[in-house]
Amino acid sequence: MTLELPTVCDIMSLRVKVRNAESGATVEMELESENTIDDIIEGAAGYWEKDAGAYVLRRGKRLLRGQQTVAEAGLLNNDELELIPDPEGG
Amino acid sequence: MSLPPDILKARLLNELSVCARYLRRPIALPDGDLRSFPIEIEIELKGVPGLVFTDDGIETRYEHRFNILIGRNYPFEKPMVRWKTPIFHPNIMMPDDGGHLCTKLLDEWSFNSTLLSFIKGIEALLISPNPSSPFGTESCTAAAAYFNHSKIRIPPIVYSPLPKVVKSD
Description:
The complex is a heterodimer. Chain A has helices at residues 8-12, 37-47, 70-73; strands at 14-20, 26-31, 55-59, 62-63, 80-85. By secondary structure, chain A is of the alpha+beta class. In chain A, 28% of the residues are buried. Chain B is of the alpha+beta class. Chain B is globular. Chain B starts with a helix and ends in a 20-residue tail after the last helix.
């Protein structure tokens, strides 16, 4: 019998839930640590057929920055993120 | 363009109940039937850091209020929003100056926009102002200068833990 050990990729990947603030729908996404917040926005917006440029992602009440990686943003497995319309002022 | 009255009423009641759940407090309606427009509702944000200018300097407050005026043509037409509490923000006017908000959420309002996503966006706007495009009022331009020239950031959000049932009979 052979025991399958998880690969580095398996260890580094994490799963998050993204909620669409407009509809309440959710989607689960599997991320690698080098994925960026923009990647998540693009993936979720694409799934709901929205224009990724018109949305931002937040965790709790805090906005996540687009160029940050999953690791830099400190995302954890099973985190719930929210896709909200970009409120940009001005 | 406007929705049939019953559908508009159902949509508004649904949206407002979702907002009340999110804000964890009831939203008072001036007219329970939601048939006299415009409908004015007051939204109170709690636990969201926003700066205010006081005699002692710039402080952080965690409670803010604004009014939303919903017209008969909602959601085809965007609601009108007026800020009601003192604020030091480049994109939100002081109540005395009109309390107007300049945000993409209103500029790009669509049928799919909701009051809940608007409120969540306003929370984000408080935390992440855009000082490169302020209103021309004194407080907004001063806030823009403050955010442009200082490294000071809005303090972290304080979360109060939700009460938890530990034992029941």
